[in-house]
Amino acid sequence: xxxxxxxxxxxxxxxxxxxxxxxxxxxxxxxxxxxxxxxxxxxxxxxxxxxxxxxxxxxxxxxxxxxxxxxxxxxxxxxxxxxxxxxxxxxxxxxxxxxxxxxxxxxxx
Length: 109
Description:
By secondary structure, this protein is of the alpha+beta class. The chain is 66% helix and 13% strand.
């Protein structure tokens, strides 16, 4: 992944993960797999787990420990009302920024 992609993802990965949790609760490895399935193959698992700790601390998700067939219980993350509000703000911000960037791009062509 290029430097620009890495820098842009730093500012958007939280919103991307919250968006993944809209559909259904998931545990860390599932979230990482969903990101990879969507083309974010170079995101390290450690990055995702650190982000999950942050969104839990911010109160954007509810966490339940669910027994695992292999090893210790899994932490399953569910988007809550605060997370939904944060995601809505993310989408409004994304729409604003992407519209401004599109304007700049069309002026340069």
